[in-house]
Protein backbone atom coordinates (compact mmCIF):
# COMPACT_ATOMS: atom_id res chain seq x y z
CA UNK A 1 0.00 0.00 0.00
CA UNK A 2 1.41 3.42 -0.94
CA UNK A 3 1.57 6.41 1.38
CA UNK A 4 -1.33 8.06 -0.47
CA UNK A 5 -3.52 4.97 -0.11
CA UNK A 6 -2.75 4.63 3.59
CA UNK A 7 -3.58 8.31 4.16
CA UNK A 8 -6.79 8.05 2.12
CA UNK A 9 -7.86 4.92 4.00
CA UNK A 10 -6.75 6.09 7.45
CA UNK A 11 -7.95 3.84 10.22
CA UNK A 12 -7.14 4.69 13.81
CA UNK A 13 -5.18 2.17 15.79
CA UNK A 14 -7.05 3.16 18.95
CA UNK A 15 -9.75 1.01 20.49
CA UNK A 16 -13.39 1.93 21.07
CA UNK A 17 -14.63 5.49 21.29
CA UNK A 18 -11.09 6.92 20.96
CA UNK A 19 -10.75 5.23 17.58
CA UNK A 20 -14.13 6.53 16.43
CA UNK A 21 -13.24 10.09 17.47
CA UNK A 22 -9.79 9.79 15.85
CA UNK A 23 -11.30 8.56 12.57
CA UNK A 24 -13.92 11.34 12.58
CA UNK A 25 -11.32 14.05 13.21
CA UNK A 26 -9.17 12.57 10.43
CA UNK A 27 -12.01 12.82 7.92
CA UNK A 28 -12.82 16.39 8.97
CA UNK A 29 -9.15 17.42 8.68
CA UNK A 30 -8.87 15.89 5.23
CA UNK A 31 -11.94 17.78 4.00
CA UNK A 32 -10.72 21.07 5.53
CA UNK A 33 -7.29 20.69 3.95
CA UNK A 34 -8.62 19.71 0.52
CA UNK A 35 -11.22 22.48 0.45
CA UNK A 36 -8.73 25.03 1.74
CA UNK A 37 -6.16 24.27 -0.94
CA UNK A 38 -8.77 24.18 -3.71
CA UNK A 39 -10.38 27.44 -2.57
CA UNK A 40 -6.99 29.14 -2.33
CA UNK A 41 -6.07 28.03 -5.85
CA UNK A 42 -9.46 29.10 -7.22
CA UNK A 43 -9.27 32.47 -5.46
CA UNK A 44 -5.74 33.14 -6.68
CA UNK A 45 -6.44 32.14 -10.29
CA UNK A 46 -9.67 34.15 -10.34
CA UNK A 47 -7.84 37.19 -8.97
CA UNK A 48 -5.07 36.91 -11.59
CA UNK A 49 -7.64 36.57 -14.41
CA UNK A 50 -9.62 39.54 -13.06
CA UNK A 51 -6.47 41.65 -12.85
CA UNK A 52 -5.30 40.91 -16.39
CA UNK A 53 -8.65 40.69 -18.18
CA UNK A 54 -10.64 43.40 -16.39
CA UNK A 55 -7.78 45.52 -15.06
CA UNK A 56 -8.93 45.24 -11.43
CA UNK A 57 -8.04 42.80 -8.68
CA UNK A 58 -10.66 41.24 -6.47
CA UNK A 59 -10.67 43.49 -3.43
CA UNK A 60 -10.94 40.75 -0.80
CA UNK A 61 -8.68 38.16 -2.46
CA UNK A 62 -5.66 38.79 -0.22
CA UNK A 63 -7.75 38.62 2.93
CA UNK A 64 -9.41 35.40 1.82
CA UNK A 65 -6.03 33.80 1.08
CA UNK A 66 -4.80 34.92 4.50
CA UNK A 67 -7.76 33.17 6.14
CA UNK A 68 -7.18 30.02 4.06
CA UNK A 69 -3.44 29.94 4.86
CA UNK A 70 -4.19 30.08 8.58
CA UNK A 71 -6.84 27.38 8.20
CA UNK A 72 -4.59 25.07 6.16
CA UNK A 73 -1.60 25.55 8.45
CA UNK A 74 -3.38 24.79 11.69
CA UNK A 75 -5.55 21.99 10.32
CA UNK A 76 -2.38 20.58 8.79
CA UNK A 77 -0.41 20.26 12.04
CA UNK A 78 -2.95 17.80 13.42
CA UNK A 79 -2.96 15.94 10.10
CA UNK A 80 0.86 15.71 10.12
CA UNK A 81 0.87 14.41 13.69
CA UNK A 82 -1.83 11.82 12.88
CA UNK A 83 0.11 10.45 9.91
CA UNK A 84 3.55 10.56 11.54
CA UNK A 85 4.68 13.22 9.04
CA UNK A 86 6.20 15.61 11.55
CA UNK A 87 9.88 16.51 11.46
CA UNK A 88 12.05 14.24 13.57
CA UNK A 89 15.69 14.45 14.52
CA UNK A 90 16.36 10.86 15.29
CA UNK A 91 20.11 10.21 15.62
CA UNK A 92 19.92 9.37 19.34
CA UNK A 93 16.48 7.78 18.99
CA UNK A 94 17.66 5.43 16.21
CA UNK A 95 20.66 4.32 18.25
CA UNK A 96 18.46 3.13 21.13
CA UNK A 97 17.10 -0.41 21.52
CA UNK A 98 13.33 -0.91 21.08
CA UNK A 99 12.57 -0.39 24.78
CA UNK A 100 14.55 2.85 24.85
CA UNK A 101 12.88 4.09 21.66
CA UNK A 102 9.46 3.31 23.14
CA UNK A 103 10.25 5.19 26.37
CA UNK A 104 11.68 8.13 24.46
CA UNK A 105 8.69 8.22 22.08
CA UNK A 106 6.30 8.30 25.06
CA UNK A 107 8.28 11.19 26.59
CA UNK A 108 8.42 13.05 23.27
CA UNK A 109 4.69 12.57 22.64
CA UNK A 110 3.72 13.68 26.16
CA UNK A 111 6.07 16.70 26.08
CA UNK A 112 4.84 17.74 22.64
CA UNK A 113 1.24 17.32 23.79
CA UNK A 114 1.91 19.60 26.78
CA UNK A 115 3.51 22.21 24.49
CA UNK A 116 0.48 22.09 22.17
CA UNK A 117 -1.91 22.60 25.12
CA UNK A 118 0.30 25.46 26.38
CA UNK A 119 0.12 27.08 22.93
CA UNK A 120 -3.64 26.41 22.88
CA UNK A 121 -4.01 28.44 26.07
CA UNK A 122 -2.00 31.37 24.74
CA UNK A 123 -3.79 31.33 21.40
CA UNK A 124 -7.12 31.61 23.24
CA UNK A 125 -5.72 34.53 25.28
CA UNK A 126 -4.61 36.18 22.02
CA UNK A 127 -8.04 35.70 20.42
CA UNK A 128 -9.76 37.17 23.48
CA UNK A 129 -7.43 40.18 23.22
CA UNK A 130 -8.29 40.60 19.54
CA UNK A 131 -11.98 40.27 20.37
CA UNK A 132 -11.76 43.00 23.00
CA UNK A 133 -10.16 45.40 20.49
CA UNK A 134 -12.97 44.95 17.95
CA UNK A 135 -10.73 45.04 14.87
CA UNK A 136 -12.23 44.02 11.52
CA UNK A 137 -10.79 43.04 8.15
CA UNK A 138 -10.93 46.05 5.79
CA UNK A 139 -12.50 44.33 2.75
CA UNK A 140 -14.54 41.49 4.21
CA UNK A 141 -15.54 43.40 7.37
CA UNK A 142 -15.17 40.21 9.42
CA UNK A 143 -13.93 40.54 12.98
CA UNK A 144 -10.21 39.66 12.96
CA UNK A 145 -10.55 37.25 15.88
CA UNK A 146 -12.74 34.92 13.79
CA UNK A 147 -9.97 34.11 11.31
CA UNK A 148 -7.70 33.01 14.15
CA UNK A 149 -10.15 30.46 15.57
CA UNK A 150 -8.29 27.82 13.52
CA UNK A 151 -5.19 28.33 15.67
CA UNK A 152 -6.51 26.96 18.99
CA UNK A 153 -8.45 24.26 17.13
CA UNK A 154 -5.22 23.14 15.44
CA UNK A 155 -3.29 23.15 18.71
CA UNK A 156 -6.12 21.26 20.46
CA UNK A 157 -6.31 18.55 17.80
CA UNK A 158 -2.52 18.22 17.65
CA UNK A 159 -2.21 18.07 21.44
CA UNK A 160 -4.87 15.36 21.56
CA UNK A 161 -3.14 13.49 18.74
CA UNK A 162 0.20 13.43 20.57
CA UNK A 163 -1.53 12.42 23.81
CA UNK A 164 -3.22 9.54 21.96
CA UNK A 165 0.18 8.58 20.50
CA UNK A 166 1.60 8.33 24.02
CA UNK A 167 -1.39 6.19 25.08
CA UNK A 168 -0.94 3.97 22.01
CA UNK A 169 2.74 3.47 22.91
CA UNK A 170 1.83 2.67 26.53
CA UNK A 171 -0.67 0.02 25.45
CA UNK A 172 1.06 -1.66 22.52
CA UNK A 173 4.09 -3.83 21.94
CA UNK A 174 5.43 -1.86 18.94
CA UNK A 175 6.74 1.70 18.88
CA UNK A 176 4.28 4.10 17.21
CA UNK A 177 5.03 7.52 15.67
CA UNK A 178 1.29 8.24 15.74
CA UNK A 179 -1.78 6.19 16.56
CA UNK A 180 -1.69 4.49 13.17
CA UNK A 181 1.97 4.66 12.09
CA UNK A 182 4.44 2.09 13.38
CA UNK A 183 8.04 3.30 13.72
CA UNK A 184 10.36 2.13 10.99
CA UNK A 185 12.01 3.15 7.78
CA UNK A 186 10.99 1.97 4.35
CA UNK A 187 13.66 0.53 2.13
CA UNK A 188 14.42 3.41 -0.21
CA UNK A 189 17.21 1.75 -2.17
CA UNK A 190 16.43 0.61 -5.67
CA UNK A 191 18.08 -2.17 -7.58
CA UNK A 192 20.00 -1.20 -10.69
Automatic annotation (TrEMBL):
It is a multi-pass membrane protein. The chain crosses the membrane at residues 31-54, 66-82, 103-124, 144-164. InterPro entries: DctQ, TRAP_DctQ. The keyword Chloroplast does not apply. The keyword Ligase does not apply. Its main location: membrane. Residues 40-170 form the Tripartite ATP-independent periplasmic transporters DctQ component domain. It is found in: Cell inner membrane. Keywords: Cell inner membrane, Cell membrane, Membrane, Transmembrane, Transmembrane helix, Transport. It comes from the Bacteria. Part of the tripartite ATP-independent periplasmic (TRAP) transport system. The complex comprises the extracytoplasmic solute receptor protein and the two transmembrane proteins. Belongs to the TRAP transporter small permease family. This is TRAP transporter small permease protein. The lineage of its organism: Bacteria, Pseudomonadati, Pseudomonadota, Gammaproteobacteria, Oceanospirillales.
Amino acid sequence: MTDEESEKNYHSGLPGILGIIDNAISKIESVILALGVLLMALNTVTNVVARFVFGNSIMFSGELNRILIIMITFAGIGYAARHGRHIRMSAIYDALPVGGRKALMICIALFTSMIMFFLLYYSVVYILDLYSKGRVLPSLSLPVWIIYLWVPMGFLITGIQYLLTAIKNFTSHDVYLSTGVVDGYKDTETEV
